[in-house]
Amino acid sequence: MTTLAANQSELEASSPNALRLKIGACVVGVSIIAGLLASLALGAVDISVAEVLAVFAGDAAETTRRIVLDARLPRALCAVLAGCNLAVSGVLLQSVTRNPLADPGLIGITAGAGMAATVVLAVLPGVAVLLPIAAFIGAMVSAVFVYAVSWRPGGGASPVRMILAGVAVNAILGAIIGLLITAFADRIPAVMFWTTGSFNGRGWQHLRLMLPYSIVGMVMAMSLHRSMRVLELGDDAASTMGVRVERTRLIAFAAASLLAGSAASVAGLVGFIGLVVPHLVRLVLGTNRFVLPVSAFAGASVLLWSDLLARTVLAPSELPVGVVTGLIGGPYFIYLLYRSGWLR
Amino acid sequence: MTIAADKLRVSFGPTEILRGVDLTIQTGEIVAVVGPNGSGKSTLVRTLAGLLKPTSGSATINDQAVTAMPPRTRAGKLGLLTQTAEPPSLTTVEEHVGLGRHSKRSFLSRWTHTDTEAVRDAMQTCEVTHLAKRRMENLSGGERQRVRLATLLAQDPDHLLLDEPLTGLDIEHQLGLLHLLQELNSAKQRTVVCVLHDLDLALRFFKRVVVIHEGVVAADGLPSEVLCPRIFESVFRVDGRVGCEVGGEPVIMCRQCQPQSQTSADPPEKLVELVVKREATSSYVGSEKNTTKI
User: Fold this and answer.
1) Given an 8 Å threshold on Cβ–Cβ distance, is A240 in contact with B79?
2) How far apart are alpha carbons A49 and A52 in whole angstroms?
3) Which domains does chain A have, with CATH numbers?
């Protein structure tokens, strides 16, 4: 986290925020580690934390080792990475469109993934192996389309046009998805389960699929960290202050698409994280600084714990993870909103 | 060091806003740009700042086209106080002013002592130090505008361009801001180019006035020469006179043009009374309000 280090001395200037940041970062860090341990220990077969640690030390029973390393660990890491991606994608889109309601869902990125996945699940169930790749490609095509539609020579892509184009694309793709599942009604459960998001059966190959795009997206996002804050002052002000506005917006949009698209390809359409985690972080930190790095970890933590709940609450059957994030995260967020009086 | 516009033309779609502006401003000048609504004065300043591409002609700093300069280099030469915008959310005054340092910092460079000092100096100059920890959204319009100016100073450009910086400020803050601009101009030899609506203030606080009318420079020179009845009538379409009744400072009286002019019949006492009333209540008989009725 070079950005964190580089901004250390900026922090000294405002100590109350610095304290909140440190506490917030600690809480998030601890919750990720605790969540990882719990994810490895809990499940159909309960494994004690000591045994989990023994697995990593290399002296555990073969079955325990395989449950932990081949099933639970990759699944937990998928949740961590997807949560991270979705939250950062939300931060980028909210900042770049200057709209607190922006998230990968509003802007049409996830609808593209959903549409492609529906085609695979409903029309071509024989090639379900290709589901993640198809979803990723769907998200990218949709994102490029939205950006192209909202782009004008000379003016770049304006935030308002981006959102309106995203909403329109959402409507079109939603209609096509509706048409497809009506035509292939027997495939509705599979489609529904995927579109509410799930980490059921996700393994190392899924993580490997997501990782390169995530790294590229994260590096792009981190490189924009400062420019995006200046961009909040408005396009004209930012431009005269040395920010390349169009380029910043394009890179942010591309990064957000890569991150959300890769997350959707593995996790399905998990709502809530991209929209709400950035706001949650802002409410807790009380500042717009460091929202990007802290959101990355907070998103990871939220999705990790949500997945743990999704697979343990009604065990042995499993809830879609999107149901958990919505049912628990939503009310908590309303409580925070009510208490803070922010976003009047 | 000069800022220059040469046969500058700028269009928005089919509408041509600037129709051949020629203007040269030397370093260290303090210039007011005035003109009726829609005359193109904001467009001119925004083009000089590199925000708009000329359709023909050029806008340059030291003979270098502003739109061709790398943004960071440009930001070191020239800063713009944009027209009042929504303040960013959850941002303290100190953070806001700190954003002004953006162009001075390379991609991974750390926040340095120089940055801290620049921010502190800028906040002191604009008298917002006591607001440092407050959030922008909780400040009054006058305070916000001073913070925005402080952010511009933290950027530390050679030339300051200001697009209607007085909008929404009461008379005390208007005068305060203009005194500050004068100070910045005289103490640090910074160029100040300011778009204004109030002709009175242009007359009193600036050494040069440029009048923009229908996309061209209608007049350019000393305020006392430029702001004359001929310009008031031909550009602003009001009857105006300059007097020196209050403490020796020049003041402008304008009234709506009437088919049969009666202004010359007014006794001077009445003029003084009106002017005093204006200073006291800050409600002013502005030229803008009247032109719209014609």
Assistant:
1) yes
2) 5
3) 2-340 (1.10.3470.10)
